[in-house]
Design brief:
Number of domains: 1
Bound molecules: guanosine-5'-monophosphate
Distance between the termini: 27 Å
Radius of gyration: 14 Å
Number of strands: 5
Oligomer: single chain
Number of helices: 2
CATH architecture: 2-Layer Sandwich
Shape: globular
Length: about 120
């Protein structure tokens, strides 16, 4: 599978509204927000295209970094206490569009369940 748009965002070749960055993680506003807060949190490594590429032992540190970032961003955006949803779409039936692992951090409104 070829390079994704997120690789270009990591290299700052195309713009994004970056809200958080470390050596390993980048987070930016989704271009088509589905909630008042809609942040994409991605690893800077490109080898995990979807959840089925995850090897627990190998990738535990980066998965930890993604969730640490989500906790920090949720606090920064004031949704840590009200609640939020973290979504990972994996594969065609889930509607995954970009094959670079990403957490959707969604909040700022009441969510429905079950999801569509
Ligand atoms: P997926 O459907 O793969 O789980 O989610 C991909 C997400 O990336 C979508 O919510 C889409 O709006 C977002 N997206 C796609 N291209 C861009 C882009 O160039 N910039 C930003 N900020 N978000 C993007």
């Amino acid at each position: 599978m070829g390079e994704t748009i997120f690789a270009k965002i990591i290299r700052k070749e195309i713009p994004a509204e970056i809200v958080y960055e470390t050596d390993t993680v980048l987070a930016f506003k989704d271009i088509k927000p589905q909630a008042p807060v809609h942040i994409l949190i991605i690893p800077k490594i490109t080898e995990i295209t979807t959840t089925k590429d995850i090897n627990g032992k190998l990738h535990a540190p980066i998965l930890g970094d993604l969730f640490d970032a989500a906790n920090k961003i949720a606090k920064d955006f004031g949704i840590s206490e009200s609640g939020y949803r973290i979504v990972i779409n994996s594969g065609p039936d889930a509607g995954q569009e970009v094959y670079h692992l990403h957490l959707h951090l969604l909040g700022g409104r009441k969510m429905n369940w079950p999801p569509g």
